[in-house]
Sequence to fold (276 residues):
Amino acid sequence: MAPDGLVLEPREPASGLLDEPFRMHARGAGGEDGLPLTWRARLRDDEGRVWRASAERAAELPAAWAPAKASTGPLAGLQSLRPVAIDVRVESDDDGRVASRTVTRKLLADGVRVRRWRAGLAATLHLPAAATPCAVVVLDATGGAGATGREEVPGGAEAIATAALAAPLLASRGVLVLVVPPSGRNGAGGSTGGAAGAAGAAGAAGAGGASSERLLAAAREQLAAVPAAAGAEIVSIAPLLPPGVPWSGDDDFGSRAAAWDALLATLGATPRERSA
Fold:
């Protein structure tokens, strides 16, 4: 008798935030039958570039993202903040059985609003769905590398691209976030451009913008006038690349995920789900 087919059983909603781990189980193999499995994932970013991941467990997929082509930049272009469709496939290494499904991951939870400030300081405000945020944060993308600790994207653009992805996910977890790019230019949180657009903003900053300290002081002053931030302590932090964002840097994914979880805990934000 032919073996039963594999069935993918999600242990999570069909749509979740991008920084969540994959919580899936393959019924008909693996744990029950002791068969070795290979998990694969695939997504296409805003720029049409394909990213792939392969691992022995579904929970390990976010740590395994790699660009399909060497010409792809180091960071997935997801600055449109549109939901991301991820094709997940599991294969039995023993008998070739296969199961697949598509899951949707969001950078913006329902009710989160993104506003660009164009008068005075040009920055991007991310308002959580709740009327009262758990914390108020200025995300400092005014220069230098992002918290990934890598310099593959030149001119401080990595910090801008990282902030553009971290801010909506923080807001989705209850944090009010203002992203301040170099020279007060609106390089983070935009709908297009990715790392290339961020590089242009960083280059403009290098040509002679206001100092980071003055930019951040102006940001805190303007942020204090936002009703949802009234009376709240305003915290300045450096951009931190969230887990789950495809990234080709040779960093320690476990440390990055732990740092993200620690940041959420410090801010009192909604925590991520744990891996199955």
